[in-house]
Amino acid sequence: MSDLTAHDLRRLLDAAADLASVVTRARLRERAVEVLFDVMPATRAGWVTMDLSTGAMSGYHLPEPIPFVVPLMPRDLAEVPLVAELLAAPVPGSLRISDTITEAEWHSRRLWAEVYRPLGGEYQIGSLLTVDEGLVETLAVFRADSDFTDRELALAEEVARQVRVTLARLRASEAREARELLTSRQRQVLAALETGATIRQAAGDLGITEKTLENHLQTIYRRLGVSSRTAALHRTFG
């Protein structure tokens, strides 16, 4: 944070207080983009969710939605230089496009010609927020006329850090609420599976048949509004 000015730090403190009051993921997505778009000069800012298994994307952008981008984005996220580098890093962080690819190589890509250039996204900072159940959450800010400075990179990363803290808080809250929907026996079933045990192993540990355990799982799915064991574990344990 050594590159940040006193004015930056005051704005970040205000942003942290604002984000701390957010109570839903939907509102966090909107507020995070509003904060990022406000704290530095930019063409646009956005929050993008990408499914690693299907390539499906959704997002929230300012100053206006950009729905035409979704079908143009590559299904292999390795083709998106920032995403590939951020996913390869040992911890979530922030990078500029210019940190990951040369200008000549960037301009040779269809992604730049058909998506980034029309949107005024010659320059970009991308921040990895979380990789959760195969979903990648990223925060990004774009500019057309000049690259982002080291100070602006530090500013974007600090906003992202605050968003990560809020995401963790919301996940913990959602997990508590999910556990309250379940009976003690249903929580025991999920706890047995959370260790990585198979259905057969978990049933044996609990002293029940596999069929009984499967029945418990179906009831748990209905109560939590999910359709898989992985999603149920995620909802319950965060």
Quickly list its features:
5 strands; Arc Repressor Mutant, subunit A; 238 residues; 2 domains; five-stranded antiparallel β-sheet; alpha+beta; Beta-Lactamase; single chain
Note down, in words, how this protein is organized.
The chain has 238 residues and is of the alpha+beta class. The protein folds into two domains: 6-173, Transcription factor LuxR-like, autoinducer-binding domain (Beta-Lactamase), CATH 3.30.450.80; 181-237, Orthogonal Bundle (Arc Repressor Mutant, subunit A). It contains ten helices and five strands, in the order H-H-E-E-H-E-H-H-E-E-H-H-H-H-H. A hairpin with a 2-residue loop joins strand 4 and strand 5 (135-143). Helix 2 (25-39) packs antiparallel against helix 6. The longest helix has 31 residues, at 150-180. The chain is elongated, with a radius of gyration of 21 Å. The mean pLDDT is 88.
